[in-house]
Write a structure and sequence with these properties.
It is built from 7 helices and 13 strands. It is α/β, with parallel strands linked by helices. The protein has a 7-stranded antiparallel beta sheet with strand order 12-1-10-3-2-11-13.
């Protein structure tokens, strides 16, 4: 059993849920310190226990989900392999495969050459796997973040087409002669339902999710799917980038890795009494901060 999976199962066995919450945050300008940050959870003051800043230890879980155009896949693999050198020195990279269930191709390493070789050797084939594996990837990352005093982020690089999943998201018309059959008017209903369920699952995890999609598609169902991916990343404090052409791939990957490298991780001590869905607020004087503000806590 790989180390990441062992970490996940070990964390799941803990009886008491953590009283600490890690909040991903970004800020421009001078480094933000724990002393200048003020935090609240559902309006109640929360102590800032620690701040992990850009340059501190970072674990990047890179999930590859490439199944379509080999030209786009080659460009993405090359861009990723070459961009690894731009990440902060204290970055550990784990490479995952999203097809046929989440598979670990490389455990966390600082060896950029080995990581690049693993990425270049990844075969682009099979069915899309992002929707099937993203919740598991987030749980693994959450277990790492809970147990280790590091920054953690999940990045999916995908060319996924909503029509290329094992699950059928086409929401076929049930009764074509019934004008009241809503499936005639909302063909994206199934994919929206899937996204909603995943959003709830990700709300119970802490790490930010980032997605670089290599092949933007403009048909109605794929637009609903791609909007859903944007929604998932935004809800976790991450972001999604969509490439309109092959020339966008290199810059999209580079910008996303730069954003990940510049992340903060703010550790808060939760008040003794909170609801299950909590609202977080961070302030650092008049400085603009971008951070995740909603979490679903496990029962305590």
């Amino acid at each position: 059993m790989r180390r990441l999976i062992w970490i996940l199962t070990s964390a799941a066995a803990l009886a008491a849920p953590p009283s600490l919450l890690r909040v991903p945050m970004s800020a421009s300008g001078a480094p933000v310190t724990a002393r200048e940050l003020k935090a609240s959870v559902d309006g109640a003051a929360a102590r800032v226990a620690a701040v992990r800043a850009p340059g501190d230890d970072l674990i990047l879980m890179l999930a590859l989900d490439l199944t379509g155009d080999l030209t786009l896949a080659d460009l993405a693999r090359s861009a990723l392999a070459e961009s690894l050198s731009t990440l902060p020195a204290r970055t550990w990279i784990s490479v995952l495969r999203a097809q046929d269930g989440l598979q670990v191709l490389l455990d966390p390493t600082q060896d950029r050459t080995r990581a690049a070789e693993t990425i270049r050797a990844y075969p682009a084939s099979g069915k899309a796997g992002l929707l099937d594996t993203v919740a598991a990837a987030a749980r693994v990352a959450d277990a790492v973040l809970t147990r280790a005093n590091v920054r953690v982020a999940v990045l999916y690089v995908t060319d996924s087409n909503v029509y290329n999943y094992r699950e059928d998201f086409t929401n076929p018309v049930i009764n074509s002669s019934d004008s009241r059959d809503l499936s005639r008017y909302f063909p994206e209903g199934l994919v929206q339902d899937k996204i909603s369920k995943l959003e709830t699952a990700l709300a119970a995890t802490q790490p930010p999710l980032f997605i670089v999609h290599l092949d933007y598609r403009s048909d109605r169902l794929n637009e609903a799917y791609q909007s859903g991916l944007m929604k998932l990343t935004a809800s976790t404090g991450g972001s999604a980038a969509f490439c309109r052409s092959a020339t966008d791939i290199d810059s999209s990957i580079a910008r996303t890795l730069e954003t990940i490298g510049a992340l903060y991780s703010v550790t808060l001590e939760l008040p003794q009494r909170t609801g299950r869905m909590i609202q977080v607020q961070l302030e650092a004087g008049d400085r603009p901060l971008n951070y995740r503000n909603r979490y679903l806590l496990e029962k305590r």
